[in-house]
């Protein structure tokens, strides 16, 4: 059993304890009512938050050096205004899970309205709303 699955089992037990939900009742509506992201999506949230801070504000050099913006070949294209990152090629399956590869892939999947947030607090709120609406409960 993976570590994420074990953490998800612990997270599923916590709202049952807090809300006095029965053992065999579905946990998804309880998580949704508490506004808790599942563990896998919480990891996505953390990676995107670190990426946002690295791109918009000062962050340690070792994190910023892993992220590179894609430079458009032609100016005047609509794609020249988007802030997309270069996704490095990996040879192994575990290479897709490292920060240098996962962060650009997740960042490029975000809508431009999220990428253009002006403050960390507005980015956090918008990102959590986006994840709750688009990934978790559909």
Structure description:
- By secondary structure, this protein is mainly alpha-helical.
- It folds into 2 domains: 1-36, no CATH class; 39-136, no CATH class.
- It contains 7 helices and no strands.
- The protein has helices at residues 3-19, 28-34, 39-56, 61-64, 99-108, 112-115, 120-136.
- Helix 3 (39-56) packs across helix 5 and helix 3 (39-56) runs antiparallel to helix 7 (120-136).
- The model has no long low-confidence stretch (mean pLDDT 80).
Number of helices: 7
Order of helices and strands: HHHHHHH
What structural class do the secondary elements suggest?
Answer: mainly alpha
For the residues shown, what is the average pLDDT?
Answer: 80
List keywords for this structure.
138 residues, mainly alpha, 2 domains
Report a brief summary of the structure.
With 138 residues, the protein is mainly alpha-helical. Helices cover 56% and strands 0% of the residues.
Ordered list of secondary-structure elements with their pairings:
Elements lengths: L2 H17 L8 H7 L4 H18 L4 H4 L34 H10 L3 H4 L4 H17 L2
Helix pairs in contact: 3-5, 3-7
């Amino acid at each position: 059993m993976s570590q994420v699955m074990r953490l998800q089992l612990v997270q599923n037990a916590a709202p049952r304890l807090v809300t006095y939900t029965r053992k065999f009742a579905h946990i998804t509506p309880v998580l949704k009512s508490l506004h808790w992201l599942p563990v896998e999506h919480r990891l996505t949230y953390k990676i995107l938050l670190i990426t946002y801070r690295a791109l918009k504000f000062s962050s340690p050099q070792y994190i910023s050096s892993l992220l590179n913006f894609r430079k458009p070949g032609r100016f005047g294209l609509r794609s020249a205004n988007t802030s997309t990152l270069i996704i490095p090629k990996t040879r192994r399956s575990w290479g897709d899970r490292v920060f240098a590869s996962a962060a650009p892939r997740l960042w490029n999947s975000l809508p431009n309205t999220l990428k253009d947030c002006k403050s960390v607090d507005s980015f956090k709120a918008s990102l959590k709303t986006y994840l709750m609406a688009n990934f978790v409960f559909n």
